[in-house]
Amino acid sequence: MASHLIQQNIEALSSPSGHYSHIVTANNMSFVSGLLPLDKQGKPLADKPVEEQITQVLENLAACLLGINAKKTDIAQVKVYVTDINEWPIVNELYAKWIGEHRPARLVAGVKELHFGSKIEIEAVVIKE
């Protein structure tokens, strides 16, 4: 029996190293797994400044949107996890510049640590017409 869930990995991103898919879609809703600052080869950018990390995460999110033929304006919600809440202003500035006038629902959470020692992780819910 075919599943009503479509599991998808994005070719432009490194293959998941854990037991998950980059995106799972049900009907017109797509759930984007937490995106870390990993380059296309899967190399963590944890030793880079937060500006480079958020830029890479947003590039990864853009690749996910492209992979499901979605636009930034289809993003309904994002959840942003940061390890240093004091870096939030620069993260917010770069995120706002990337997403433009669109304002999806958003959660920002300060966390103790993220995988690979990353400073930021973003997950998203995308709804297409």
TrEMBL record:
| InterPro entries in the cross-refs | RutC-like_sf (IPR035959), YjgF/YER057c/UK114 (IPR006175)
Q: Which organism is it from?
A: Proteus genomosp. 6
Which Gene3D superfamilies does the UniProt entry name for this protein? Answer: RutC-like
Q: What class of enzyme is it?
A: hydrolase
Extract the coiled-coil ranges from the record. Answer: none
Alphabetical UniProt keywords: Hydrolase
| Lineage, uppermost ranks | Bacteria, Pseudomonadati, Pseudomonadota, Gammaproteobacteria, Enterobacterales
* Cited Pfam families: Ribonuc_L-PSP
Q: Give the enzyme's EC designation.
A: 3.5.-.-
Q: Indicate what this protein is called per its UniProt record.
A: RidA family protein
* Domain of life of the organism encoding this protein: Bacteria
A GO molecular-function annotation: hydrolase activity
